[in-house]
Design a protein that fits this description.
Order of helices and strands: EEEHEEHEHHHHEHEHEE
Number of helices: 8
Structural class: alpha/beta
Strand order of the largest sheet: 6-7-8-3-9-10
Distance between the termini: 24 Å
Strand content: 25-35%
Largest sheet: 6 strands, mixed
Radius of gyration: 18 Å
Helix content: 25-40%
């Protein structure tokens, strides 16, 4: 079943002196349950495309569909709701709050959910929320690390916290922007293996933005961009 569809998707970044065409009429389709990578050299438009799919940036032309939801018809509140409820994101810089523990960082993703969304997950109170966050950490291999702060953990473990935070709300899709960029080979392979497991066992749609050869070799489909176009 089709999850994402883009039609003539374009993005232009404007400065005081020039306009930069980051994406040029990109049309593609991504099915539910896929494991794929958007690849290309630096400046090819891959992170831009991921940010547009994740509603982190605005479209300049064309459109994006998430199932039957047309992005251009969403107001700001509706965009926030879609991003919150349907999309999990992980980043190369982890984006963890340093003064919070691992479990508290994961709970952040639950704290922004509405009551009906929490109840749908089976979360009725603060204890349920904490248990749910710990379960998510366990799923990514961080058993008994819930009370550690990010600076007490390795880069690979910090990325696992960010993955736990992204999946704790049970999103439809996981968007991963250069998730191995700051990791050594061993930790990169561990993160890749974990995302493969989430895809195969949970059926989670996983979309990378990356030029990492290890990631490209691990996915089932590659969408390669060059100068903002699919090549």
């Amino acid at each position: 079943m089709e999850l994402f569809r883009t039609e003539n998707l374009s993005k232009i970044y404007k400065t005081s002196s020039e306009s930069v065409l980051a994406l040029d009429k990109v049309s593609l389709s991504i099915n539910s349950g896929e494991l794929l990578a958007i690849s290309g050299r630096s400046g090819s438009g891959k992170t831009t495309l991921l940010n547009l799919l994740g509603l982190l940036d605005s479209v300049s032309g064309g459109d994006i569909y998430l199932e039957d939801i047309k992005y251009s018809q969403l107001d700001k509140k509706a965009q926030t709701n879609i991003r919150r409820d349907y999309i999990g994101m992980i980043f190369q810089s982890y984006n963890l709050i340093p003064v919070l523990t691992a479990v508290e960082n994961v709970e952040l993703a639950l704290n922004v959910l509405e009551k009906k969304s929490l109840e749908k997950l089976g979360i009725m109170n603060k204890n349920d929320k904490r248990d749910f966050a710990i379960q998510s950490l366990n799923e990514v291999g961080l058993e008994n690390k819930e009370n550690r702060r990010p600076n007490e953990l390795s880069g690979g473990q910090q990325q696992r916290i960010s993955i736990a935070r992204a999946i704790v709300k049970q999103p439809k899709v996981l968007l991963a922007d250069e998730p191995t960029a700051n990791l050594d080979k061993e930790n990169s392979l561990n993160v890749i293996s974990l995302i493969e497991k989430l895809n195969s066992e949970k059926g989670l749609t996983c979309i990378y933005s990356s030029h990492d050869k290890l990631i490209i070799e691990s996915v089932k489909r590659e969408i390669k961009l060059e100068d903002g176009r699919i090549c």
